[in-house]
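Entry 14. Ran structure prediction on the chain below.
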Amino acid sequence: MNIKKNVVRLLAVVFIFTAIFSSMSGTIVHALGYTVSIGCLSAADSMNSGDAVFDAYFNDITVTSVTVKATYLSPEILYSGTINPVTKSITIPGLANGSYVVSLSRIGFLVKDIDVTVSGSNQNIGDKSLLAGDIIVDGSIDVADLGTLLSVFGSTYGDANYYPGNDFNVDGSVDIADIGMLLSNFGEPTYPWPGPDFGT
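Output, structure tokens:
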């Protein structure tokens, strides 16, 4: 009888130890994940017009999104977040050693795909810029985008045809500055032409 009790106690101890070890292992694996820091100076500032409804609408549209995938064509998103509009940066946590594709996207700008390799340490891949002008989101900045921008030229905050995604410099109006930004990037393509991390 005592033998059976001792066996039961031993099994219970083994079970508890296994559960604790598994939990600790998960924590250790998570703790060993590395961070990837990236800056994006072309991320929009937060709008503070005093109109809370408009500000929320504006900030939601102009946010710079960040996603991490294993490959360009992978359907699985390993991480998603947004660039902080104040610091113009983000720190992606908990990535294991390996290769990743970090994508930056903002309405009206070309998507930027960046190859990142994590190998035993935290990574800081510096500041990246997005190219303004891909209004119709077809992967290039061309006459269609220019035509769309010209059709709303002169619109300002409060006008029915004003759209924050066309206001590249986030000054509350679609004006010559926005036209200039588009023209300076005219003809630029995004991935896969010519490939990842295109531009500056």
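Residues 10-31, 192-200 have pLDDT under 50 and may be disordered. Will compare against last week's run tomorrow.
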